[in-house]
Amino acid sequence: MATPSQIPDIDHLSDRELKALVIALLGKVAALEEKVAAQAEEIARLKGLKGKPNIKPSKPSGMEKETENRARREWREKRRRGAKPPPVATEERVIAALDIPPGSRFKGYELFTVQDLRIEAQTVCYRRERWLTPDGRTVIAPLPAGIGDHFGPEIKRFLLAQYHQGQTTVPRLVELLQTLGVAISKRQVVRILTDDKDAFIDEARDVLRAGLTHAAWVSVDDTGARHQGRNGFCTQIGNDAFTFFATTTSKSRGNFLGLLRAGHGDYVLNDQAFAYMRRRSLAGPIIAKLTGHPARHFADATAWAAHLDVLGISGLKVLPDPVMIATEGALWGAVLAHGFVDGTVILSDDAGQFNVGEHALCWVHAERLIHKLDTFTAVARAAKEAVRGLIWWFYTDLKAYCRAPDRRRKAALKARFDRIFKRQTGFATLDRLLARLHANKSELLRVLDYPQIPLHTNGSENDIRCQVTRRKVSGTTRSDDGRDCRDAFLSLAKTCRKLGISFWDYLGTRLGAVVAVVVPPLPDLVAARCAG
Asked: 336 pLDDT exceeds 60?
């Protein structure tokens, strides 16, 4: 440490001397920092601790964004947004000018549009006439349409929209309404959100039925969802016309097939069911037992389980599990018996439970496997980037094929797929991954036979974000009614958005409130959109 006599008097130093002093001090600071870092590493080594890993953060692949049509991208960038007219009726008010000098000429009006919102509490006391008939009966005047309890349709619509579309919590809704002058409790809000909502749940189920019956393709995904304090799974099914959510305790293939029944609970043994069992390598003698019995239709899971017991299948302890595969086959038979997903392509991210029927794979998830591959040498990095470049190029041409399908281009793309995914790069991990992707050739190239289906599951991932947000906001549902209402209303809100319908008008139509546009049944709109 320098003594006071060694410290120079900086007030009397010239600019050149000050600069030299600063440079010398900076050098000493750098040396001290290097020494401290070395000492820290030595201390960590002596304690047996690992140093901070030098890992570069992983970034998303970005394949879909980067391969988007350049002209379309430029058009979006150049497009200018003008003033959007309000979707509601406009009230006109005339404002008279003040202090007009004599001799002035009237030149019309200058328009200035102002949008505002009026929210106020309203309490109505209905004086219902009561009459006593000669025969002793009491006749009471009926309440107006849409009034069934002590809260009107407008407050119910507000609560449902704010909770499900606005993702607001119940305590905040209670506080907001009380601030506005509404006498309401948390229990009453919860009842409005969950009680007597069977009509909405049934409509969400009918939306799924319409989609599975008429859609050329659906994309699927799932995410975690808690119910009654236990971990579960929320499955999404939808396309560009509808969305459906269902929360269950399992994410197995049997669970997914059960959801594809769209509310039906039966099990059916038909030709499609037996074909499914054979594809899943169910033993021939077990299939013979099932085909030899005259029973083909079972009303529910209890009747199906009893049938397996009678045939002696339930007690078999072999692989593959005959009960599981036979049940999946009966579920698949029920799905097709009801006319669902007959020729419909099911697009997924390669999760095993979704691999049923005409199955297609997401290209973004396939390329992401290569993008996330760790490389440790320059040769491996070069091989990885070269393969990614070929896949991006191929993906761009697939998008062009979807816009203008051609038989010759289809054959060329198939041959080119083999050249890309059969190549040997010398990077063993990458070569094994390419071989694995090549084994999924038919599912990755399903788009060549069905050009209308998308190449990725971005739509499903976008849909399911509202469930993730709800999970972060509320954590878990406590009752089965709360779970079913959450799934149904989020499904209906997403479906309205895809159909270009106001969710506010939808709720108002169903609850009997005053609406700008009457919303027809959503299943009819979904069926028309999918068929068109």
From this structure: yes
